[in-house]
Amino acid sequence: MEYRVLGRTGVRVSELCFGTMSFGGDADEASSAAMYRACRDAGINFFDTANNYNKGRSEEILGQLMRGERDELVIATKCFTPVGTDVNARGGSRRHVLQAVEASLKRLQTDRVDVLFLHQIDALTPLEETLRAFEDLVRAGKVVYPALSNHAAWQTQSALDLQERRGWARLQAIQPMYNLVKRQAEVEILPMAQANGIGVVPYSPAGGGLLSGKYAERGTGRLSTSKMYEERYGEPWMHEVAAKFAACCRSEGHHPVSLAVAWVAAHPAVTAPIIGARNVEQLSASLDSVKIRLTPERRAQIAALSRTPPPATDRLEEAKPKA
What we know:
The chain is α/β, with parallel strands linked by helices. The protein has helices at residues 29-42, 57-65, 94-108, 127-139, 153-166, 189-196, 215-218, 222-225, 227-232, 236-252, 256-265, 280-287, 296-303; strands spanning 3-5, 12-14, 17-19, 46-48, 74-79, 113-118, 143-149, 173-175, 199-200, 274-275.
């Protein structure tokens, strides 16, 4: 396991981040504990959760598991998504952010969160309101580094500019969706992050399981049981890419998940892809991704299996290599 600096923090995180969305849901406490230990044994020190994962159980289980080694870990959580029936138990208001973080700290049994992501953009709340809440939490020592998830490049840049004007702690990480069939982040998000020295912790590197190679054979899993994933990865061309990718993996002797994660990790803007699993057996392929080191040329060959998004200006002729 290699370690990379997160943004401009000076903090070194493992090249893989383990996402605990399955804790307390698809994975019971015993399976969660086994995966946590497998990650630690592999050298992972970076864990990602959220206050709404399985109604808070993910944070609770992670909090129990990390007892005795909290200071060795970099813990990220999120706020925004509804966590109750109250009309204000959601969003990016300063009121909710402060309440959400206090609740997360209790569930995680810790005095601070290393990275706090705003899970999504809140159309009802000015960004300045949310970022002021983040700044309050940083000054109180309850959050170490602010971060954004699922935000556009211009929204992230606006946040950075606002923080600079106010003298507030700057964003140090973003969490976009990124994989072989979801490459929009390449257009502006990843270049923006590189230009600003922001850490990139992308989620869904295996495309919700689409790139695992199993759906063509059995038609089971998230793409069959989750409407969200069905819509996200339901376009026919995506399944065609997945089939070509699976054939490529078979010819090279790689597990599709291992290569899918390695492909994401090889982008120069990426700090650590978020991997996840329901059990240790499923987790092993993601952990094996660190054994695959792709050259820029080989990464480009794999990228060619998929659709390359047009440049931000949509001037396609400028995207072609010059002779």
